[in-house]
C-alpha cells in the first residue's frame, strides 16, 4: 500500500465519521472569526437556541471594515455607519458567547490570517476554518485549513465539525534556486499562471521541493494564501524545523512537557516518501521572474520582462472573449510592454503580503528614494498590531514615510476596499494583495498583483520596473 | 432550508468564464448583518451603470442595457446558464443569498468553484454541472428561442429542455437528500453528537495541547 500524503494524514486524524455516500464529518480544532461572515451565523445559533460546542476553539478579530487611519476614538468613530454596525455586532456576539476577541484597538488585532498564526492559535496538525477563502494561508504551518461559507461557520460553531468530502492530492514541486529579487509572491503567481485559476479545484495542494523547504514561514504563508486563486481550498507545506521554530513561544502554543509532546507528534506531519499524488506539477525556480498580473483573474499573469498577451494567439473562443474583456476593463493594449504600464496608486498589505518580511522587503527598495509624482497614494498597511510594532521598532515606518508612503493601522484595507481605502474608476494600482477581479479594489479600479518589492519599485518609478534591475542601480 | 424538488423556469445565458463572487455581489453590500435583501444588488457592477451603495433604492439607477438579466426577454429568469469556474474567489455566502433573493433557483455550468458550490446547497439553490458540450448546446438553444425554459428534476437528476431532451447530472446523495427535504444539516450532525464526543475524548488523550488552549 502506498504511503500517505500530509493531507491524507491530517484528514484521517480528524475524521469523526464517514457516511455511506462518501461525505465525511471532520473535527475542527480551531475557528477564526471576523465581522463580515459571522453575524448571520451567530444569528442562526440564537434563532435555533443553540450554544457553541466549544468556546475555547474560537478566536475573533475585526479586520475587513476597520479604518486604517488614526482610530484611537474607537469603534464609535468609524464613519461608515454600516461598517460600524458590523464591527459592533462582532464585539457583542463575542461578548455574549464568551469568545476571545481582539477588538479593533487591541494591540493584537490584525488580519485574521496574520493574527491567528502570530498568536499560536494555529498549530501544526490542527484543522482550522474561517469564513474567508484565504484561510488556506494557515496550511503553511502544516495545518489543514479550509475557507468556508457562513452556514458552515454556524455549523462549526454548533457542532465543532465540518461536513466535507475528501479532496484529491496535488503536489506542486519547485526545485532550484530563486534569483535575487524573486519572492514567494512571484512563485505562487507563476504557479497560478501555469495551472490556471481553476487548476487546483478539487485538490489539496502541497507545496514541496527545495524552494519551499528554504522559504521562511512568512513566505510559505504568502504561497498557501493564494492556493485558493488556483482553485484549491487547501494549501499545505510539510512541517520542519522552520515551522517548529516559528510556533515556539507564541502565546497559545503549548508549553513545557506539552510542547515536547507536541513537537514529537509533529515530526510525522510530512508526506511519506512513497505517498502517491493524483497530480504533480514540477517547476524550476530559475524559470521564475518577478510577476505582474495584467488582467482581471490571477491567472492573467506574466513575467515583468514580457508583454500583455494578444488574443490573436489564442484558439479557444471563451478565452479570446476573456482576454478582450480584460484588456478593455484594464485599459491595456495587446503586446504592450508590462514596464510601460503607468500606475496611480500602490498598496502594500493584505493577508498575502503584510507580514514583517514583506515590509522589510518593500522598505529595502524605497529606502532613501521618493515616490514618483504621478502616484496619488502609496499605502503600507501592516497585517497586525504586532507586525506594526515590530516594523516601527526596526524603523521601517520612518523609511516608508520619508519616501512618501503612508504608514497605516492594521486591517484588510485596499485589498477589498470595504473600508475607506479604495481605487477610483480607471486607476491602476500595483497591489500586493491576492485578487485582481473587476471592481475588487474599488468601482472601476484596475489592480495589478505583484510582490512587495515590485510594488515598492513601482511606487518609486511610477510605472512597473524589473525590481532586479532597479536594485542594482 | 427551502426545499428543491422540481423547477421549471426561464433560463438566461451569462456568457463569461471565471465569474467571481465579487462580481456576483460586490463588497460594499457585505456590510449587512442580514441574510436577505441582496437580490437588488446581484451583479451590481454589470447590471447598473453607476456605483451602488448599501441600503440604496435601486429603482432609479441607470441600467446597463447590454447586461443579459436587464433584457426584456430574460425577465423572470430563475435558471442561470454559466461558464467554467463559476463562483470563484471569495467565500462570501452573500453570493448564493443574492442569487436566491433575485429569484435564481439553479445555476448550470461546466464547473464551479468549490466554496461557492458548497454554499449553494445550504440555501436551497441547486448548482448543476453538465459537460461543456451540453452547456454549449443550452447556450445555443436559449439564444435561438425567446421565452426558453428549462425544467430541473432533482429526484431524477435531469435537466429537461423544451424539446424534451434530457441531460443527466450528478449530485452527492447527502446533498440531494437535504435539498429534497429542506433539511438543516446542523440538526443532522447533532444526531451524531456521541461520535463527536467520543472523538474528542480520544483526541484529548493523544494531543491534549489542542484543548482548553484559547483564552485570556
Characterise this structure.
The complex is a heterodimer of chains A (473) and B (216). Chain A is globular, with a radius of gyration of 21 Å. Chain A has 473 residues and is of the alpha/beta class. The longest helix of chain A is centred in the first third of the chain and has 17 residues, at 81-97. Chain A has two domains: 1-287, Aconitase, domain 3 (2-Layer Sandwich), CATH 3.30.499; 291-472, 2-Layer Sandwich (Aconitase, domain 3). Chain A has helices at 6-13, 39-48, 81-97, 112-118, 150-159, 184-195, 210-213, 217-225, 241-247, 256-266, 317-330, 356-366, 385-393, 396-403, 452-461, 467-472, and strands at 15-18, 23-27, 30-33, 58-60, 100-101, 127-130, 144-147, 161-165, 168-175, 203-208, 234-236, 279-284, 291-293, 301-303, 345-348, 377-380, 406-407, 428-431, 446-449. Chain B has a single domain (6-171), classed as Aconitase, domain 4 (Alpha-Beta Barrel). In chain B, 31% of the residues lie in helices and 15% in strands. Chain B has a seven-stranded mixed beta sheet. Chain B has eight helices and seven strands. The longest helix of chain B is centred in the last third of the chain and has 14 residues, at 193-206. The interface between A and B is large, with 84 and 65 residues.
List the keywords.
heterodimer, A: 473 residues, alpha/beta, Aconitase, domain 3, 2 domains, five-stranded parallel β-sheet, B: alpha/beta, Aconitase, domain 4, globular
Walk me through the topology.
The complex is a heterodimer of chains A (473) and B (216).
Chain A: H1 6-13, E1 15-18, E2 23-27, E3 30-33, H2 39-48, E4 58-60, H3 81-97, E5 100-101, H4 112-118, E6 127-130, E7 144-147, H5 150-159, E8 161-165, E9 168-175, H6 184-195, E10 203-208, H7 210-213, H8 217-225, E11 234-236, H9 241-247, H10 256-266, E12 279-284, E13 291-293, E14 301-303, H11 317-330, E15 345-348, H12 356-366, E16 377-380, H13 385-393, H14 396-403, E17 406-407, E18 428-431, E19 446-449, H15 452-461, H16 467-472
Parallel strand pairs in A: 3-4, 3-6, 4-5, 6-7, 9-10, 9-12, 10-11, 15-16, 15-18, 16-17, 18-19
Antiparallel strand pairs in A: 1-2, 2-8, 13-14
Chain B: E1 6-13, H1 21-24, H2 44-47, E2 77-81, H3 94-102, E3 106-109, H4 114-121, E4 126-129, H5 132-144, E5 149-153, E6 158-160, E7 166-168, H6 173-181, H7 185-190, H8 193-206
Parallel strand pairs in B: 1-2, 2-3, 3-4
Antiparallel strand pairs in B: 1-5, 5-6, 6-7
Amino acid at each position: 500500500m502506498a504511503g500517505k500524503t500530509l493531507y491524507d494524514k491530517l484528514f484521517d486524524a480528524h475524521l469523526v465519521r464517514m457516511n455511506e455516500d462518501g461525505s465525511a464529518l471532520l473535527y475542527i480544532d480551531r475557528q477564526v472569526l471576523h465581522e463580515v461572515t459571522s453575524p448571520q451565523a451567530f444569528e442562526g445559533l440564537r434563532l435555533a437556541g443553540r450554544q457553541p460546542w466549544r468556546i475555547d476553539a474560537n478566536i475573533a478579530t475585526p479586520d475587513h471594515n476597520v479604518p486604517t487611519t488614526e482610530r484611537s476614538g474607537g469603534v464609535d468613530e468609524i464613519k461608515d455607519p454600516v461598517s460600524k454596525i458590523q464591527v459592533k455586532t462582532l464585539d457583542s456576539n463575542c461578548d455574549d458567547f464568551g469568545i476571545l476577541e481582539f477588538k479593533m484597538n487591541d494591540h493584537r488585532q490584525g488580519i485574521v490570517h496574520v493574527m491567528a498564526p502570530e498568536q499560536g492559535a494555529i498549530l501544526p496538525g490542527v484543522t482550522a476554518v474561517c469564513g474567508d477563502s484565504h484561510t488556506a494561508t494557515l496550511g503553511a504551518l502544516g495545518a489543514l485549513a479550509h475557507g468556508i461559507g457562513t452556514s458552515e461557520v454556524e455549523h462549526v460553531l454548533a457542532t465543532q465539525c465540518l461536513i466535507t468530502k475528501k479532496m484529491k492530492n496535488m503536489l506542486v514541486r519547485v526545485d532550484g534556486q530563486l534569483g535575487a529579487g524573486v519572492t514567494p509572491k512571484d512563485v505562487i503567481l507563476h504557479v497560478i499562471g501555469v495551472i490556471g485559476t481553476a487548476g487546483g479545484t478539487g485538490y489539496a495542494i502541497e507545496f514541496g521541493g527545495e524552494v519551499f523547504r528554504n522559504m521562511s514561514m512568512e513566505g510559505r504563508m504568502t504561497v498557501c494564501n493564494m492556493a485558493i486563486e488556483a482553485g484549491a481550498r487547501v494549501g499545505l507545506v510539510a512541517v520542519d524545523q522552520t515551522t517548529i521554530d516559528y510556533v515556539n513561544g507564541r502565546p497559545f502554543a503549548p508549553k513545557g512537557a506539552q510542547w515536547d509532546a507536541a513537537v514529537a507528534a509533529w515530526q510525522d506531519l510530512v508526506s511519506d516518501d512513497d505517498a502517491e499524488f493524483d497530480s504533480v506539477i514540477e517547476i524550476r525556480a530559475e524559470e521564475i521572474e518577478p510577476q505582474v498580473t495584467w488582467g482581471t483573474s490571477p491567472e492573467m499573469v506574466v513575467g515583468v520582462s514580457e508583454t500583455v498577451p494578444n488574443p490573436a494567439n489564442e484558439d479557444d473562443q471563451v478565452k479570446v472573449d476573456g482576454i478582450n474583456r480584460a484588456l478593455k476593463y484594464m485599459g491595456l493594449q495587446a503586446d504592450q510592454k508590462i514596464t510601460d504600464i503607468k500606475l496611480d496608486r500602490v498598496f502594500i498589505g493584505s493577508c498575502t503580503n503584510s507580514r514583517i518580511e514583506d515590509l522589510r522587503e518593500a522598505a529595502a527598495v524605497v529606502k532613501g528614494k521618493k515616490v514618483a509624482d504621478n502616484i496619488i497614494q502609496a499605502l503600507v498597511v501592516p497585517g497586525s498590531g504586532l507586525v506594526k510594532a515590530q516594523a516601527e521598532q526596526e524603523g521601517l515606518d520612518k523609511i516608508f514615510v520619508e519616501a512618501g508612503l503612508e504608514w497605516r493601522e492594521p486591517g484588510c484595507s485596499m485589498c477589498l476596499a470595504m473600508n475607506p481605502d479604495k481605487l477610483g474608476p480607471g486607476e491602476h494600482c500595483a497591489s500586493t494583495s491576492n485578487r485582481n477581479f473587476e471592481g475588487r479594489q474599488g468601482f472601476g479600479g484596475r489592480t495589478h498583483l505583484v510582490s512587495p518589492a515590485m510594488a515598492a519599485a513601482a511606487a518609486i518609478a511610477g510605472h512597473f520596473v524589473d525590481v532586479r534591475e532597479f536594485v542594482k542601480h | 432550508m427551502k426545499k428543491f424538488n422540481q423547477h421549471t423556469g426561464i433560463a438566461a445565458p451569462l456568457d463569461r468564464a471565471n465569474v467571481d463572487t465579487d462580481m456576483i455581489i460586490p463588497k460594499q453590500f457585505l456590510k449587512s448583518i442580514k441574510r436577505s435583501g441582496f437580490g437588488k444588488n446581484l451583479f451590481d457592477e454589470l447590471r447598473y451603470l453607476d456605483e451602488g451603495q448599501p441600503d440604496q433604492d435601486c429603482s432609479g439607477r441607470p441600467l446597463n442595457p447590454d447586461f443579459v438579466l436587464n433584457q426584456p426577454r430574460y425577465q423572470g429568469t430563475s435558471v442561470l446558464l454559466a461558464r467554467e469556474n463559476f463562483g470563484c474567489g471569495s467565500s462570501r455566502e452573500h453570493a448564493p443569498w443574492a442569487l436566491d433573493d433575485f429569484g435564481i433557483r439553479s445555476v448550470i455550468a461546466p464547473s464551479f468553484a468549490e466554496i461557492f458550490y458548497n454554499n449553494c446547497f445550504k440555501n436551497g439553490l441547486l448548482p448543476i454541472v453538465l459537460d461543456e458540450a451540453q452547456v454549449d448546446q443550452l447556450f445555443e438553444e436559449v439564444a435561438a428561442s425567446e421565452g426558453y425554459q428549462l425544467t430541473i428534476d432533482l429526484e431524477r437528476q435531469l435537466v429537461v429542455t423544451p424539446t424534451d431532451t434530457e441531460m443527466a447530472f450528478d449530485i452527492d446523495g447527502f446533498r440531494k437528500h437535504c435539498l429534497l427535504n429542506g433539511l438543516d444539516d446542523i440538526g443532522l450532525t447533532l444526531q451524531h453528537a456521541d461520535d463527536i464526543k467520543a472523538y474528542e475524548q480520544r483526541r484529548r488523550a493523544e494531543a491534549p495541547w489542542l484543548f482548553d488552549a484559547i483564552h485570556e
